[in-house]
Every structure is written in C-alpha cells, then in structure tokens.
Write a structure and sequence with these properties.
- There is one protein chain.
- By secondary structure, the protein is of the alpha+beta class.
- The protein has a single domain, classed as DD-peptidase/beta-lactamase superfamily (Beta-lactamase, 3-Layer(aba) Sandwich).
- It is built from 14 helices and eight strands.
- A five-stranded antiparallel beta sheet has the order 2-1-8-7-6.
- Helix 5 crosses helix 9 and helix 7 packs across helix 9.
- The longest helix is centred in the middle third of the chain and has 15 residues.
- The two termini are 15 Å apart.
- Bound molecules: glutamine.
- Glutamine binds next to loops.
C-alpha cells in the first residue's frame, strides 16, 4: 500500500466488520463488565511521530484488563533490569489466562508474564521497585497519552474484588513457592486495580508507542533498549493472546495484547500501534470485532512483522 489515507482506511474497516460488532459475549465473571453494551466498537492508530487517527467509539473509555500486563512487564524491564526473568518464563502456556494447572508442575514459576499468574509475579516485582504497581502503571499511561484523567474505575475494581477468589488463590499458591514476596492481599489488590483502569483507544494507542519506537518514550527518553523492546514484542506475539496466540499470529501477524474488557493493543514495529475495542469476546476471551478489524488492517495495509 502506497500512501495510507488513515481516516479513510479506518472508516472502511469499521464498515467492513460491522456484522461482527455486538457478536461474542461480554465477560460475565466480572459483573461490572457484564453490564457493558456489546454493540460498540472503536479503533485508533498512533504513528511514531505522535499523530493519532481513529474511527467509531475510539474516544470512549473501556476496561484495560489484561492489556495492563504489557505495561507492567515494560515497567519491570525499564532501565534494562532483567531480573524479572528469574521469576517468570516466556513460553506460551496453551492454557486459559486464569488457569492454575501448570503452576504446581512447574514449581510456582508462571509460563509467561501475560497470564494472570505471571502478571501477579510482575506486580509483586513492581511493588518492590515502585511501592505501588497500579500507580506506576497509571503514571506511565497518563504521561504517554497526555491524558491526566486516566484512572482506575472503582466500580469495576470492586466488582472483580468481590469475585476474586481465583486470582487470590493463585497469589497464595505463588507465595507458597516463594514467588510472591509482598503481602499477598495487597499484591492481588494492586493487580485487580491495574486491570480496572479505564482508557480509550486513542490513549491506549499513544501509550503503547514505545513498542513501535524501539523503546523510546514520547519525549524521546529511553524506556527500554531496542533489544528489550524487540523481546517484549516477541513475547507479545507468542503469548499475548493467551491460548489463541497461534490463531492471532496466523490471522493478524502482529504482536498484540488483549483484555477481557474487549480491548486489544497491537504493534507494527517502526510503523504504528493499533488499539481496538469491541466488548463481545470469543471463548478464549479475545474481542471478536477487534480481531476481525486487525485482520482487515494488516490485509489492507500489508503492515505485519511477516
Ligand atoms: N484476560 C483478562 O483480561 C483477565 C483480567 C482479569 N482482571 C482477571 O484477572 O481475570
């Protein structure tokens, strides 16, 4: 594709995936998310120079959920501190994001940072470095997006906490292996609160730009070395969509991270970030309309890592 008319392209994608909007089912294990209208869709594309384009509900906030896991990993690796890899692996799990089964076989070392068990360990690491992991994520998102209003949605946090037995069990199980160092309840709470951050597609695409800019933040200060940025993108490609990572790589061919709020952040290294949001999920917890839109985006532009 020669010169890309981004506004026209995004409008075309929204029109093409229209039949998928509202399909799938909203996450109902977090009651506050079950109340979200599934018939919504937004897409935003941010370019390395900070220009941002969007279509549909791209300025409407949604629940960040597991997409927070990519920001916590990046913060854990910032300054090229690689010590987190002693505590968490980087292999796809092939299991659901909230599965516990591998943890006992593998001695309390989660397969990767993008499933819940791995994110709990990363949160514990960040709590040790920054004091409060949720605040560290919020500060980063606000600075990179330029939107100081981004915050935790207290209703979503309370709703997940009231139904948080599984993550709490997982955190205690990790602690039994010595892989949670802080207070278990506090770490589980910080994890839930970073998932409950409300953000829109525009701000999410801008906040992820360091992944497309080889580790540079928007003010040109360095977040990560080019090598560690490449590595995060590689782990996103292999593990970012949980047990659907292979299918997503096949259909879209980009590093990406999804969340059960219906958002996905995808990266075309050197070119752009793309944030999509559609609350209807497939059975693995990935946005149906979001994956369809990213599929069309890479097909129409030819922008992919392959
Ligand atoms: N896949 C997700 O987005 C899961 C995040 C959610 N907060 C949970 O822990 O279950």
């Amino acid at each position: 594709m020669a010169a890309v008319d981004m506004d026209q392209l995004l409008a075309q994608i929204v029109a093409e995936i229209e039949p998928q909007i509202g399909t799938g089912s909203v996450a109902d294990y977090i009651p506050a998310l079950a109340a979200v209208d599934p018939a919504q869709f937004g897409i935003a594309v941010a370019l390395p120079n900070g220009e941002c384009y969007g279509a549909g509900d791209w300025t409407k906030p949604f629940s960040l959920q597991s997409i927070s896991k990519l920001f916590t990993l990046a913060l854990a690796l910032s300054g090229d501190d690689e010590s987190i890899w002693w505590r968490v692996g980087r292999e796809p799990s092939g299991n659901a994001f909230n599965s516990l089964v591998q943890l006992e076989y593998e001695n309390g070392v989660p397969r990767n940072p993008f499933i819940n068990a791995g994110a709990l360990v990363v949160t514990d690491h960040l709590a040790g470095v920054f004091g409060d992991a949720t605040k560290a994520v919020l500060d980063f998102l606000r600075t990179e997006s330029g939107n100081a209003e981004i915050d935790c949605d207290e209703e979503v946090a309370a709703s997940e906490e009231a139904h948080g037995d599984r993550n709490l069990a997982m955190a205690h199980f990790l602690a039994s292996y010595g892989n949670i160092h802080g207070d278990v309840r506090s770490i589980a709470d910080q994890y839930v609160r970073q998932c409950a951050i409300a953000i829109n597609c525009r701000d999410l695409a801008l906040a992820g730009l360091f992944l497309a800019r080889h580790g540079l933040r928007r003010d040109d200060t360095r977040m990560l070395s080019p090598s560690n940025t490449k590595r995060i993108n590689a782990v996103l490609l292999t593990c970012g969509m949980y047990d659907a990572a292979g299918e997503f790589a096949y259909r879209v061919g980009l590093p990406g991270k999804s969340g059960v709020g219906g958002g996905i952040l995808a990266v075309v290294p050197g070119r752009c970030t793309i944030a999509v949001w559609g609350p209807g999920l497939d059975r693995r917890g990935n946005s149906v309309a979001g994956v369809a839109a990213l599929d069309r985006f890479t097909e129409l532009t030819g922008w992919s890592v392959f």
